[in-house]
């Protein structure tokens, strides 16, 4: 299974949009980078599906462009005008060559999903390896309207409870991809989130 960050060359703010090639070609989030369709076409002419971790603007701004360019199915937790299939907590989704369990992980966003497989997690924004706040084990921001630190803490705990120890690849909505002791990264993020301190001190 090959995972390509098709927004890697973005010059403006976007999430990481991941093109996963294998038995089923899937884009995890569409991002907000102009030219993402061209970046996808550098690697494949077909796209079977787009799955969304959540529908914040930096994850879906280019969604219409991607769906217009490819005859791809759209899967998401919450309704979207172009959604073909809903994804509920516990559903299984094939991404690339692997089956992933969808885990509802609110806190950063009410509709947030993480996708957990045997070797890989697409964690969206609920937990990341690195960002502007922490370099090893960080968590999604919860200081904006509709967000909840308590829900996010519960979501990270749920990921740890449902994630097999065999997971060694972490692809988050922001920051760098990580390969190694993914559980340790997520446990570190949980410890930081549980302190209930502002993520970005003024």
Based on DSSP secondary structure assignment, what is the total number of beta strands? 14
Q: At the third CATH level, what is the topology name?
A: Metallo-beta-lactamase, Chain A
Helix proportion range: 10-25%
The radius of gyration over CA amounts to 16 Å
Given as residue ranges, the uncertain stretches (5+ residues, pLDDT < 50) are none
Major β-sheet profile: 6 strands, mixed
Count of DSSP H/I helices = 5
Euclidean distance between termini CA atoms: 42 Å
CATH homologous superfamily - what is it? Ribonuclease Z/Hydroxyacylglutathione hydrolase-like
Kindly report the average pLDDT value.
Answer: 97
CATH class: Alpha Beta
Notes on the protein architecture:
This protein has a single domain (2-194), classed as Metallo-beta-lactamase, Chain A (4-Layer Sandwich), CATH 3.60.15.10. The longest helix has 14 residues, at 149-162. A six-stranded mixed beta sheet has the order 1-2-3-4-5-6, with no helix packed on it. The protein has a six-stranded mixed beta sheet with strand order 7-8-9-10-13-14. It starts with a strand and ends in an 8-residue tail after the last helix. The mean pLDDT is 97. It is built from five helices and 14 strands. It has 202 residues and is of the alpha/beta class.
């Amino acid at each position: 299974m090959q995972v390509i960050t098709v927004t890697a060359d973005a010059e403006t703010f976007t999430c990481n949009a991941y093109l996963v090639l294998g038995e089923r070609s899937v884009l995890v989030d569409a991002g907000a980078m102009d030219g993402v369709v061209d970046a996808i076409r550098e690697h494949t002419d077909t796209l079977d599906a787009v799955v969304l971790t959540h529908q914040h603007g930096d994850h879906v701004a280019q969604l219409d462009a991607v769906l217009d360019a490819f005859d791809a199915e759209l899967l998401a937790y919450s309704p979207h005008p172009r959604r073909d299939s809903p994804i509920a907590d516990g559903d299984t989704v094939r991404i690339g060559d692997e089956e992933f369990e969808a885990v509802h992980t609110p806190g950063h966003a009410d509709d947030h999903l993480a996708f957990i497989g045997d070797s890989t997690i697409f964690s969206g924004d609920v937990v990341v390896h690195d960002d502007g706040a922490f370099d090893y084990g960080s968590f999604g921001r919860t200081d904006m309207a509709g967000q909840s630190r308590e829900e996010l803490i519960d979501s990270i705990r749920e990921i740890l409870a449902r994630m097999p120890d065999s997971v060694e690849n972490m692809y988050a909505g922001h920051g760098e991809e990580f390969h190694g002791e993914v559980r340790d990264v997520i446990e570190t993020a949980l410890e930081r989130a549980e302190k209930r301190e502002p993520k970005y001190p003024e």
